[in-house]
Amino acid sequence: MANFAVLGFGVVGSGVVELFYKNKKHIEEKAGTEMEVKKILDLRDFPDSPYRDKLTTNMDDILNDDSITVVAECMGGVEPAYTYVKACLERGKSVSSSNKELVAKKGAELLACAAAHNCNFFFEASVGGAIPIIRPLHKCLAANDIHEISGILNGTTNFILAKMISDNMSFDDALKLAQENGYAEKDPTADVEGFDACRKICILSSLVFGKHVYPESVYTKGITSLTLEDVELAKLLGGAVKLIASVKRLEDGRILPSVMPTVVPFHNMLSHVDDVFNAVMVNGDGIDKAMFYGRGAGKLPTASAVLGDVIDEIKHERTVFSQMWADAADQSFVAPIGERSSRMFVKISKAEPEKITQALSEFFRSQNIALKAKVQLAGMHNDGCIAFFTPAPLTMHQADQLAAALSADEIHVCAMLPVLD
Ligand code: HSE
Fold first, then answer.
1. Residue range 178-190: average pLDDT?
2. Hey, which bits of 315-385 come out as E strands?
3. I need a surface site. Which of 112, 308, 313, 404 has the fewest CB within 10 A?
């Protein structure tokens, strides 16, 4: 018999309890033992809940109950989740967490704490909602040298972008709908400004490259400054604008994580990931590419990942060492954004095509970059701006120089987005 507790009875926590009791028999078969939710911690009252007898407002009821061996943390935020999770691990209780902020900020410390107390800190639900990605990265793909990951890691922003593009819905209405569906964070700034995706790419980077990557080290830009015109021009050039979180290992061994609105060419499968779905593309030397796809947010999809960890923790008696990384006070292994290199989507004020071509030729000559392709301009027949993809990759630093060079030729750059090549 195994008892577990649930911390937080909000969207995810209530989903964990609901899915557990819906599939209890099947879950117990997988775990190899009978199971029960013994306690649910929440400060709020739920007088009409069928689980009201299990509810407590006192964390000690869980900490001091030796029959509770596993705890599902679904509270969100760093405190009090950090204090509670640490206290559980120190008592040898394994924890399954859906809390990406907690893992991104305190992951190395909590993993070390779990190892010191011979239990586990698992967090499959913290990245990609329902998508299995943490376990595949450190188990199934462990034989690979993984050098790049790129993905759509925030369901809310992907949902908003899809609603704006396909249904002509306003940004505010689409956000409201995402909140009603239980996709958005308590403070949706974390979604739309890219902080949520940043926390998730920190977790994947730390897991794959073995050192804790802190959110402050990651260049992060959200979707709030995107316009419908950006999206339409990108479409004319053959791509979809997505909030892409990525990390790449550079030749010198440093890594470059970032979160940015990015134009994804239609031949790349990530361009077709819509609605609340997330996807993660992993590049490794053995596998070449593998893509993981599924619902990135929502009550039961996230609960599915939390419960998967709970079942695994009930079956595991010892710490799983493949899912660990080292703390890293020195973040110099993270390269600055100026070094990130890709083709760029450039949106400019209208100008004569010859003038644009000439300004670009001069700029690329000044950078000693040979131009192999001709520049294709999109939007020449519209009233607003026009756009093009740079015919060769540029670092972000060079892209700033390009904007300055165009501006010197009285061509105003209205927006620049990287292209996912
Ligand atoms: N707010 C998050 C999202 C929830 O929209 O992806 C899942 O982590």
1. 95
2. 341-342, 344-348
3. 404
pTM of the shown model: 0.97
158 lines ligand 1 (CB under 6 A): no
Q: Across the strands, what pairs with 290?
A: 282
| Whole-number pLDDT of residue 175 | 95
Q: Does the pLDDT of residue 370 top 90, yes or no? A: no
Q: Is the Cβ atom of 313 under 6 angstroms away from ligand 1?
A: no
> Could you tell me if 162 and 303 are in contact, meaning their C-beta atoms sit under 8 angstroms apart?
no
C-alpha 237/C-alpha 379 separation (Å) is 9
Triad 375, 379, 381: Cα angle to 5°:
120
Q: Which amino acid is at 106?
A: K
**Residue 378, beta-bridge partner list:** 387
Cα(211)–Cα(108) distance, integer angstroms = 8
Distance (angstroms) between ligand 1 centre and the Cα of 82 equals: 20
Q: How far is CA 152 from CA 102, 262, 387, 417, in A?
A: 20, 10, 24, 16
Selecting among 200, 221, 248, 347, the annotated active-site residue is 200
The rounded distance, in Å, linking the Cα atoms of 376 and 229 is 17
387 forms beta bridges with: 347, 378
**Whose CA is closest to 231, among 357, 375, 128, 385?**
385
Euclidean distance between CA atoms 85 and 144, whole angstroms: 32
pLDDT at site 165: 84
Q: Is the CB of 97 under 6 A from ligand 1?
A: no
- What separation in Å is there between the alpha carbon of 276 and the centre of ligand 1? 9
Residues β-bridged to residue 144 = none
b/e map of 293-323 (b: 16 or more CB within 10 Å)?
bbbbbbbbbbbbbbbbbbbbbbeeeebbeeb
Q: How far apart are CA 184 and CA 177, in angstroms?
A: 9
Distance 154 CA to ligand 1 centre (A): 5
**73, 156, 200, 204: residue to mutate for ligand 1 pocket, most atoms within 8 A of CB:** 156
